[in-house]
Structures are given as structure tokens and as C-alpha cells.
Amino acid sequence: MIRLGEIQTLQILKRVDFGVYLYDGENPEERVLLPKKQTPENARTGVEVEVFVYRDSEDRLIATVNRPKLTLHKVARVRVAQVGKIGAFLDWGLEKDLLLPFKEQTRKVSAGEECLVALYIDKSNRLCATMNVYPYLSTDSPYQKDDRVRGTVYEISRNFGAFVAVDDKYSALIPQRELYGSVQIGDIIETRIVDVKEDGKLNLSIREKAYLQIEKDAKRVLEIIDSFDGALPFTDKASPEVIRRETQMSKNEFKRAVGHLLKEGKIQITERAIRLNGPQ
């Protein structure tokens, strides 16, 4: 069987002026053309050729010895060649660009940028790309708790957090409670694994362990106080919502940082404010 969107080894069935026809070695009625310019020098009946099968500009099955950046049900970062009326077209290493339909985009993409996509077959039996990569990510990563990993943010949910493709391959989530700062779809981020779930999915955090993070948080608090002309108009008794909005920290993290600065004598706390103690 000839498989659309996959790299496979086929046999030469016969040679013609414009190339060779390939088949799976069993069913000669099912064949695909390998164009003449890609035909190997030793081309003769029975010779095996490793090819990728896709559709040409006239929607016919075509074989190529070139290797695309993406194969069926796999995930990869691919450059946007141009944006048209029906979607974006991706340069995936073949003569015909790959369509990323507007309905399969989780954000607007522009020519020249790279986006993380998976390859699937649509209802019309054509190869298309999708930015909804969740179903195509693997859960058998080699990583363990506290490992540092790198990944691409591909979806953001108010309820769950930021979904990340670690190594652009493994399924992971930054839970809402661990999500700080401005994180956008398409961002490539460095994170720490806080948990490996029973199903193999990874839970991540942008922040370090508390004892490592406290120095960074304390420095950040000093910068924030300085931005308020040396007097922060709330204390560690403020609501968690206010603290997160102004500092991108949880209330506990903010309190630890403030306590650290207080112990070092860098700040003073009044009833309604936190002030710097002299030049910093």
C-alpha cells in the first residue's frame, strides 16, 4: 500500500520518458510517479527507492526522494513562506508548499516566521498542517522531576495554563498556578519539570525551587519598589490578586522575598507601604 505523507520504500514498476512508476511490490495497479529528475541512475524494474509521497499542484500523488521537514502525524517547526486567501503556506522542503488553513491556526502567523505544526490528512485526502499539535505529541519523554527543559508554547488556557511542546515533541503543561509573566503562543521558553504524571505528561514551572528563586524574587521586588519612587503602595498583606498583578508572583513568593529583604535591612514595612532603606 502506498502511504500518503510518509517516507517508505517502494519498487520500480516500469520506466517511462518522464520518470519511473513505483509500487509497493504487491499491487501494480496502485502506483505513483517519481519524476525523471529524481530518478536514480540505476533505475530498473525491481530496484527499491526510498521516497516520500505527497500531492502535486494538480492534486495527483507524486513521489520524491527529497526529505520534508515534516511527516504524517509528526510535529516540527516550519517557516511560513507566504500567507494567502485560504491560509498560510509553509516551506517544508518540497517543491509544493504545505497549506496551514486559517481554521488550523491558533494565532495569526506572518511570512518569514516559524511556527510549530503537525501534519495530517484532511477530509479531501490532502496533506495539511495544523497548529493544534496536542494529539500528536508524545508522552514517553526521557525526563525526570527537576530536569531543565526547553519547549514551545502552543496553546494558552485560562483554566489550565500554558500548554508546551517540550523539545517540540513531548506533551507538557505549565499549570495556571505556575504561570508568571507574559507568555504567548509561539514563545520558546526554558522551564523546570515539577512533576511527571502517570500518563507520561509533564508539569512544568517557569520558576526555580523556592530556595533558588528567592534571590531573583527579592531583586525583582526591589526593582518594583524603585519603579514606584521608592515606596510600594501595598504590603505583603495585600490580596493575592493585587500581588500577582503588580509583581507576577504568588502571595507566598512575594512574602518570602519581602521577608528576605527585611532581614537584610534593605526595606521597611509601614502600615500601607513597603519603602526602600536608603540607596540600593
Considering the chains and any ligands shown, give keywords for the structure:
single chain, 5-stranded antiparallel sheet, mainly beta, 280 residues, elongated
Overview of the molecule:
The chain is mostly beta strands and 280 residues long. The protein has three helices and 18 strands. The chain has a five-stranded antiparallel beta sheet, with no helix packed on it. Strands 8-7-6-9-10 form a five-stranded antiparallel beta sheet, with no helix packed on it. Strands 11-12-13-15-14 form a five-stranded mixed beta barrel. A hairpin with a 3-residue loop joins strand 11 (148-157) and strand 12. The model has no long low-confidence stretch (mean pLDDT 90).
How far apart the termini lie comes to 72 Å
Low-confidence stretches: none
Protein structure class: mainly beta
Number of strands: 18
What order do the helices and strands follow?
EEEEEEEEEEEEEEEHEHHEE
Mass-distribution shape: elongated
**Residues in helix, %:** 10-25%
Per DSSP, the total helix count is 3
Strand content of the residues, in percent? 35-45%
How confident is the prediction overall: mean pLDDT?
Answer: 90
Q: Tell me the strand order in the biggest sheet.
A: 3-2-1-4-5
